Amino acid sequence: MTRDDSDRDDPGSEPVTDGGTEAAGADDVALDPWGSSTVSDYRKLFAEFGIEEFDEILEEVPNPHYLMRRGVIFGHRDYRPVAKAMREGEEFAALSGFMPTGDPHIGHKLVFDEIIWHQQQGGDAYALIADLEAHSARGLSWDEIDEHSRNYLLSLLALGFDPDEGELYRQSDNREVQDLAFELGAEANFSEMGAIYDFDGETDISHMQSVVTQMADILYPQLEEPKPTVIPVGPDQDPHMRLARDLASRMRFFGVTRAYAGFGLEDEERVILDDLYADLTDEPTDAGEDADPLRCEDAAEALRESRDRYESPGCDPATVDALAEKLENAGKEPLRPRTRFLDRNATEEAFEALIDAVEGEKRVYDEHVDSFELSREAAEELAREVELDHGGYGFLPPSSIYHRFMTGLTGGKMSSSIPASHISLLDDPEDGYDKVKSATTGGRATAEEQREKGGKADECPVYELYAYLLAGDDDEFAKEVYDECVGGERLCGGCKEQAAELMEAFLEDHQEKRAEWEEKIDELDIDLDSDRKRQ
Asked: I want to staple 199 with a disulfide (CB 3.0 to 4.6 A). Which of 203, 233, 266, 444 is the partner?
């Protein structure tokens, strides 16, 4: 949910869960999977990185998780195919990995809950131990990795992950993941890694290898067959998602796009030509519909004569010139909308099969096929079908959802290296109680001032505990705590006492369930005792 600062003292307003627009001590928007885990302004992610607001698709999600309803899950990339699969009872998957670098804490619980919820909605659920990444990027020994891996899995299972219906694995033991990583590595290069992750000449090869292994993890649920797949992550992991989506596309036999003539188009050129074509023909631009006769050279002349109309803000004038030149060079070729199949990695046999499979009017070129009757959606389906029939992967671009980071109990970011800032899922319940009682709050300087002005719940780590965890699925309770705080009815002492008691009860229950799984974990199909050389 979004709100501005003017709502903060309105007792009837909806609660937000990001600790305000900017968290204390937060970093600028620089997404680093191995560095900072804070974001100073989540709104910048929409503009700078193309992450979409989750609120816009919330109504499309059946039975949304409370983290979605409360805005803790604030953004997504291409989540609609997953939501559609849920609504229609089709196959989908959810996967996330855990780098075993310390004890699991309440911040990690967000991802545990997201994987478990997707499993409960009927998805194929995958949870992996990113041990190769922990060893290469963080330098942990295999003994440390084994100990932490066990603790992560016990908490995941205690929170509700069903190992009989899902899959648990560690990167180092999954040969299919490693083989896929090798294939994906052929589609990436060092320059790209440097641009995305700031790798340089001092970066070790194992660290780079761990990246393509993570790409293989993300695509692993689609090895048997393509299916919508969501990866729940924090926004710092978005560089991985962007690369994974690019690699999924590069591995495809065919690309599908829209075109108007034999030449290719850049994205900005296509937008301009869409408008130009509509203006010149007064016809829809969807492929498969007849259009009035129009020649490329005529369109070039019209574009040059009215170029101001098509130079939108932010559009490089050189783009208009480049498009006009392409149209002019195409001469008298008819300008007609069509759906184009691009040959990316197809075998000769697969390309010939695609040509045969495209029915109706078409035009065949050396490296692409144009259909004048197929919609883009139908073309995507046909291209994937031909690819799968000829040994390709047919990957769908993986989706992602993004959750806000929890504020540390001491203010600033929650950090595993600062014990007082977080509550470990392994903490003694009494210690959890004490940490909450000692936590920073968004309260006023005095009780009198708080009653008069209300508390600042949007900036309060304790309120976040209610919204993210302690209120569970009870939205009314979370809203009640918020409204009482900002309305001045709830004072920090009583609020922290209630939160501390709830935290203590949660840890007691969680650790009882961990103990139950401790007796059964060795029966699971995952090796928690690495036989690798000890370092």
From this structure: 203
Q: How confident is the model at residue 331 (pLDDT cuts 50, 70, 90)?
A: very high
Question: Roughly what angle, to the nearest 10 degrees, separates helices 238-250 and 205-219?
Answer: 70
Q: What pLDDT shows up at residue 283?
A: 52
Single-letter amino acid code for the residue at 371: S
Determine how many CB atoms are found less than 10 A away from the CB of residue 347: 14
> What are the Cα distances from residue 530, in Å, to 28, 154, 430?
39, 17, 34
Query: What would the CATH number be for the domain defined by 419-523?
Result: 1.10.240.10
HEC assignment per residue over 241-296: HHHHHHHHHHCCCEEEEEECCCCCCCHHHHHHHHHHHHHHHCCCCCCCCCCCCCEH
Element counts in the chain: helices (H) and strands (E): 21, 11
* Domain boundaries, given as residue ranges, for the chain: 254-389, 419-523
Q: Pick 111 or 413 by higher pLDDT.
A: 111
Answer whether 39's CB lies under 8 Å from 405's CB: yes
DSSP 5-60: GGGTT-TTSPP--SSSSS-TTPPPS---TTS----S-THHHHHHH-PEEGGGGGGG
| Paired residues of 407 in beta bridges | 413
Confidence band (pLDDT; 50, 70, 90) for 337?
very high
The pLDDT of 116-136, averaged and rounded, is: 93
Q: What is the pTM of this model?
A: 0.85
